[in-house]
Amino acid sequence: MRFDIVTIFPAMVEQALGIGVVGRAIERGTLDVTIHDLRAFTIDRHRVVDDVPYGGGPGMVLKPEPMFGALDAIARDSGVAATVILTSPQGTPFTQEAAQRLSRLPRLALLCGRYEGVDERVRARVDEEISIGDYVLSGGELAALVIVDAVARLLPGVVGDEQSVVDDSFSRGLLDFPQYTRPAELAMRGPGSGEREPLKVPDVLLSGNHADIRRWRKREAVARTLAQRPDLLSAAILDEEEQQILRELVAEREKP
Ligand code: ADE
Fold it and tell me: Any catalytic annotation for residue 97?
């Protein structure tokens, strides 16, 4: 899959993409990311990317011509047409489902917004506008990086263990169960920790009983989702056992 990212901070995007799972996928060629410096597409001597808003008001607006120039270059650059995405707080919310849908496309162009906004006419060449959450970032670069990461890890061969992607939180609409690694017992540290019991891994995980472990994990995942994100449960895909666990947990909560 190919990504094109248009930004006024190419160094920021490049650095972030060089590490971890995404960095390795780019190195191996599973993922192709081209970063385009918006300033390279300016049309004036001073390489200006922004200007004051018509009608007045604070802040600066990203000019349309450099964005159009970048999109023209992206279109010329390969035979595969890109789906053009603008990152902005006005966009539709980015979800795991959106990541899955985008991962089936051959090429995405991500336009990073900045300052107070982007000239509205840029939207004439945008297929989708995406927000990564109901808060305002100072620019779209972090949003674009979030989208690349979430989409890339769904592509075959990017994450080593395919099952870990299938089991991920949100792939079925449930939060993850708790995970532990060695040691099995850990002395509590920090203020007032002298009298505290050691922190132990739940016995069931040390039992070697796989059926019990599977049931415990299901119960924990459903319990966590009920406690922290009950809004997810209406759309979650639960098997019979999980549905039964949910009924029990809800009944327990409703007990006087
Ligand atoms: N740019 C600024 N804030 C943003 C957000 N929440 N999502 C996507 N792009 C943004």
Answer: no
Place of tokens 């385009």: 36
**Beta strand pairing call for 107-112 and 50-51:** unpaired
Mean pLDDT of 34-40: 98
Cα dihedral sign, 176-182-187-189: negative
Tell me: the pLDDT tens digits for 88-130?
999 999 999 999 999 999 999 999 998 689 999 999 999 999 9
pLDDT at 131 over 70: yes
Q: Which of 89, 125, 149, 176 is catalytic?
A: 89
CA gyration radius, the chain: 23
Cβ 137 under 6 angstroms from ligand 1: yes
How many residues comprise the chain?
256
State if residue 143 touches ligand 1 by the CB under 6 angstroms criterion: yes
**Ligand 1 atom nearest to 132, measured from its CA:** 7
- Burial class, 156, CB count within 10 angstroms (exposed 0-12 / middle 13-18 / buried 19+): exposed
- How far apart CA 204 and CA 216 sit, in angstroms, is 8
14 catalytic per annotation: no
Distant-in-sequence, close-in-space partners of 119: CB < 8 Å, separation ≥ 6: 61, 62, 63, 64, 67
Per-residue model confidence as pLDDT tens digits over 144-190: 999 999 999 999 999 987 767 766 767 789 999 999 999 999 999 98
Neighbours of 71 (CB within 10 A): 21
